[in-house]
Amino acid sequence: MKIAIFDADLIGREKHRFPNLACEKISGYWKEKGATVELCTIFPDINEWKTWKKRYNEIYISKVFTDTPVPNYIKESKHVHMGGTGFYFDKAPDLPYEIEHHMPDYNLYNEWIENEVKLARESSEINGKTFNEKRFRGQFKEYTDYSIGFITRGCFRKCPFCVNQKFDHVFPHSALEEFYDPSRKKLCFLDDNFMGYPKWRELFSEIMATGKSFKFKQGLDERLLTDEKAKLFFEANYDGDYTFAFDNIADYELIHKKLEIIAKYNTRRKSVKFYVLVAFESTDEKDIENAFKRIELLFHYRCLPYIMRYMNKNDTPWKRSKYRSLYVTLARWCNQPSIVKKMTFREFCLANQALHKTSGSYCSSMKGLLEFENEFPEIAKKYFDLRFGEKNPKFS
Ligand code: SF4
Questions:
Q1: Is there a single domain that holds both residue 331 and residue 320?
Q2: DSSP 138
Q3: In terms of domains, do 78 and 197 share one?
Q4: Same domain flag for 264 and 279
């Protein structure tokens, strides 16, 4: 048996660096059956495709992101299986039970990683540069260091912008031992809403018993944070940033209260990040103002905003907005922690302008800022000079 697996996001997204769990499970399942499994890192061209695919018994193509390109001559058929939210958004069919609950093949990407390292080393040699292999390998840590899985699945909130629409509650999904490889340093959970599971304490104890550092990659539900949860999570050996979401301005007061809880228990001053969804309800000045209003609150509590520009499989509304360049600049400013911690929004635009090569004109960031400020001076006055971590008398 010969199995081909395409992780379309790996092929089609330049800086994509996260393993596709479905691909790893498919690989694990087939390898156990004695099949030869190949991770394909390019799509064959249209002429090759017909003959190429005959070499394999089964071909799997998976993608997570809707805007990842996949050649249109590649179609689902008896032996060509296409899956994932990138193809089907909230209607993505489940993997067959025996694959879904199979131990992932954490070695699926090994050959690709070694090849990337080899190419980078050769390129450094040709260009007479020093190659720092350890540093270069750091970008593959999600492939090499983590056991990955869903300890719970489902969510009851049904946020209209979210792919998680299938269930109306949170339930246990994979037992830890189903995907836990003790030889790996860390654990990464992809749960939709771990804090929404009524028996979260039991699972939390299991996680703690491994002694491994862990993270919830998709973020945690801030609205469900209690003193008990905050104490346990902030005392734990948590890996990297604590990530929550502040998607809706309607949650403003509730999130404000929860930020107080975080401030109380985050005594080690660990980095806390919030996804800030924009361009969903509208793409007008109100949406921009709502984004800044959330950023203002987060800055006061030294929490980092991470701008998520809404898109679905058919549409990217912010791209059609009059304030398109402002959305881009907002994301570039917020989503680089080293920058957002140091510069106000205005300073960031001025820094971009300073690098602008064409004299006598404005760069797109500065142009976006000036046009918006001209149209809505009150909003600009309130928010364009906000500084991360500065105590805001409004909240003190
Ligand atoms: S709370 Fe999170 S996981 Fe649940 S529906 Fe909303 S965005 Fe999706």
A1: yes
A2: G
A3: no
A4: no
Q: How far is ligand 1, taken at its centre, from the CA of residue 294, in Å?
A: 18
Report the CATH number that the domain containing residue 159 is assigned in CATH: 3.30.750
Asked whether residue 353 is assigned to any structural domain, the reply reads: yes
* Domain-embedded: residue 48: yes
Residue 118: inside a domain, yes or no? no
* Candidate of 90, 221, 224, 225 to mutate for ligand 1, largest count of ligand atoms within 8 Å of Cβ: 221
- Tens of each residue's pLDDT in the chain, 396 residues: 999 999 999 999 998 999 999 999 999 999 999 999 999 999 999 999 999 999 999 999 999 998 899 999 999 999 999 999 999 888 888 999 999 999 999 999 999 999 999 999 999 999 999 999 999 999 999 999 999 999 999 999 999 998 888 899 999 999 999 999 999 999 999 999 999 999 999 999 999 999 999 999 999 999 999 999 999 999 999 999 999 999 999 999 999 999 999 999 999 999 999 999 999 999 999 999 999 999 999 999 999 999 999 988 788 999 999 999 999 999 999 999 999 999 999 999 999 999 998 878 999 999 999 999 999 999 999 999 999 999 888 887
Residue range of the domain that includes 367 = 273-396
Give the nearest ligand 1 atom to 219 CA: 2
Which of 247, 270, 293 corresponds to the end of one domain?
270
Find the 127 Cα to ligand 1 centroid distance in Å. Answer: 47
Backbone angles phi, psi at 162, to 5 degrees: -105, 150
Q: Are residues 231 and 280 in the same domain?
A: no
**Statement to judge: residues 234 and 279 lie in one domain:** no
Q: Where are the alpha helices (DSSP H) in the chain?
A: 8-12, 21-32, 46-52, 85-88, 97-100, 110-126, 133-137, 141-144, 176-179, 200-209, 227-235, 252-265, 285-300, 324-334, 337-340, 345-354, 364-375, 377-383
How many Cα neighbours within 13 Å face the side chain of 395? Answer: 20
Asked whether the beta carbons of 23 and 102 are under 8 A apart, the reply is: no
Write out residues with Cβ below 6 Å of ligand 1: 155, 157-159, 162, 164, 192-193, 221
Q: What is the largest CA-CA distance in the chain?
A: 68
345: CA distance to ligand 1 center in Å? 29
Which of 270, 295, 319 corresponds to the end of one domain? 270
Residue of the nearest CA to atom 6 in ligand 1? 159
Number of compact structural domains in the chain = 3
Instruction: Tell me the CA–centroid distance for residue 157 and ligand 1, in Å.
Output: 6
For residue 126, is it within any domain? no
Distance from residue 357's CA to the centre of ligand 1 (Å): 43
